[in-house]
Amino acid sequence: MLFYQRFVPGLAIASYLVGDEKSGEAVVIDPTRDVGEFLQFARQHQLHIRHIVETHIHADFVCGSRELKAQLNGAATIHCSSYGGPDWTQPYADRHVKEGDGIDIGGLRLGFLHTPGHTPEHISISLTDTSRSADVPWFLFTGDFLFVGDVGRPDLLGEQAQQALAHQLYGSVFDKLPMLADFTEIFPAHGSGSLCGKALSSRLSSTVGYERRFNPSLVRKPESQWVHDLLAGMPLAPPYFRRMKQVNKEGPAILGSNFPGQQRYSAKQVRDQASERCLILDVRPKEAFAAAHIPNAINVPVGPSLPTWAGWVLPYDLPIIIVPEEPGQMSDVITSLLRVGLDDLRGYLEGGIDAWETAGYPLASLSTISVHDVQRELAAAPAGQTILDVRTEGEWHGGHVGGALHIHGGKLSEHFTEISRDRPVTVICGSGYRASIAASFLQREGYRNVRNVLGGMSAWKAAGLPISRT
Asked: pLDDT of 427-457, one tens digit each?
């Protein structure tokens, strides 16, 4: 058996390819939209991808099943769940599977287990190597049902659905998992960093037995108490999750070999396009953005967090032109944006910000301030500025600047009215990354006196400055 686990940092996505060496056939499970690595692995090992399986309708990324099948010239069968009713049935699937169904490739057999709770239609996939055992599964691909150290969150479909889903998840955990041996290896669809659970481990595999013993969500309790504990403290879910559910249910557009966003724009063309309601996305580091940027540009710096924050804060109804630090970044930037369904990518500024400067076009900057200067200003005039903390609820309760206003960075566009325009706005996060995103949005919204705190709360705490927890 050939086994390949592909992990995408940031979104923390794990996808899989399993191949039978004798038959030369392979199955891909939960691929992302950029399918090149699976095609390359298959070529290198003389495998033919015959089957593609989705464990569920994903919310955090655009699934690549249709893309992979198109790249294979249609020579693969897409398998999706038959459970959940019409709202959860993917029309592009070639086969809708249920418990008892299977896929055979040479000496390998994949079976299906209905494990609802994260979503109504969710299935897990068992893998049996018949050369070793005729009927005892070796692997279980758990999707977003069971993670290392956690289970999938049941609250992504809204308050009305979460109670029913949480009780379904209880049944999946305590009725379905006991069917599997302790030594069964589990391979989930996410690791630490994903927002599809609240306490995921950085490990990308485990065993059913180890999770039974050490996963807090697998400790049996009265059902009502288990549901209450599970739902307590769930992290905020990005609003783009709802869009991804719909896109993946209906079937995302097929991109083909020519990804969008490759066109090079001159500074003049960027200026003209920006005036025609294009969004300027500046992916340079926060320090470079602070020094000089195109007015009204949004800063989401390149890095593992780019797709999550782009999906969280960027509008889906505006075409995007990108300002990179250098052209070699563009492939990764485009791929990151396409993973969260930001498909209307027009191109990028050729020559970067230097070309804009040389053309003599207006520039904006973002002021920065040290934590020591913030503290001195607060001591001199406590009401002289708004300290805007854009971290998560948990981070906020772990300690913040006294008197700060807390608005999660992903919810900022809904709360502009709470932020005074009459005094400076000093934005703080953990290290400055999220604060730069938030500050660029404030500038775009017309706030003129905005500052990013250098080093964020990490620097504040390291400097021993006062912490409030009230």
From this structure: 999 999 999 999 999 999 999 999 999 999 9
**DSSP state at residue 428:** E
Please give the mean pLDDT across all residues of the chain: 95
User: What is the band of 273 on the pLDDT scale with cuts at 50, 70, 90?
Assistant: confident
Fold of domain 264-358: Oxidized Rhodanese; domain 1 (3.40.250)
For residue 121, the SS3 value is coil
63: left (phi over 0), alpha (psi -120 to 50) or beta: beta
- Annotate 420-436 with b (16+ C-beta within 10 A) or e (fewer): eeeebbbbbbbbbbbbb
Nearest by Cα to 452 from 308, 323, 291: 291
pLDDT at 423 over 80: yes
Q: Please, what's the b/e burial string for 81-98 (b: 16 or more CB within 10 A of its CB; e: otherwise)? A: bbbbeeebbbeebeebbe
Reading the block at residue 37, the tokens are 């690595």
Place of tokens 């059913």: 208
DSSP 135-169: S--SEEEEETTEETTEE--S-TT-HHHHHHHHHHH
Class of domain 367-462: alpha beta
Global pTM? Answer: 0.93
pLDDT digits (tens, 9 = 90+) for 311-359: 999 999 999 999 999 999 999 999 999 999 999 999 999 999 999 999 9
CA-wise closest residue to 181 among 133, 120, 118: 133
Q: What is the CATH number of domain 2-250?
A: 3.60.15.10
Cα angle: 263, vertex 13, 208; to 5 degrees: 170
